[in-house]
Amino acid sequence: MNPSEKKSRCLDAQRAARRIRAAGACRITGQHRSTQRHKPRGHDRDDGLRECLRTLLREHPRWGYRRAWAHLREEGWLINHKKI
After folding, report:
1. Domain boundaries, the chain
2. How far is CA 31 from CA 9, 16, 17, 18, 79, in A?
3. Model confidence pLDDT, tens digit, residues 21-60
4. How far apart are the first and last CA of the chain?
5. Is 33 in contact with 26 (CB distance < 8 Å)?
6. Which of 15, 16, 62, 65 has its CA 20 to 30 A from that of 46?
7. In the predicted structure, residue 78 carries a pLDDT above the cut 80
């Protein structure tokens, strides 16, 4: 659990216990209100690519992103070089 999730849970607990709005709970916890508007999303769609890259770069630690990208393209990954 990252720090923002912890703060979010603390804020939710304050809101439930005191029956107050988000603005009041943010004031109590010292958290900015804008952090409560959007929930962070995970990057689960890139997990396979990330794991493949880690494995590849453990085997070839001197490779840069260009060589790693070229190797992934040869293996069949259709990705932009900027994503590497």
Report:
1. 3-36, 44-83
2. 12, 16, 17, 17, 38
3. 777 777 877 877 777 766 667 667 888 899 999 999 999 9
4. 26
5. yes
6. 62
7. yes
CA dist 26 and 8 (Å) reads 9
Question: Does the structure show a pLDDT above 90 at 73?
Answer: yes
Count of CB atoms within 10 A of residue 57's CB?
16
Instruction: Report the C-alpha gap between 69 and 67 in whole angstroms.
Output: 5
Q: How many whole angstroms separate alpha carbon 9 and alpha carbon 29?
A: 11
Q: What is the pLDDT of residue 40?
A: 64
SS3 of the chain: the string is: CCHHHHHHHHHHHHHHHHCCCHHHHHHHHCCCHHHHCCCCCCCHHHHHHHHHHHHHHHHCCCCCHHHHHHHHHHHCCCCCHHHC
* Integer angstrom CA distances of residue 28 from 24, 44, 74, 75: 6, 34, 54, 53
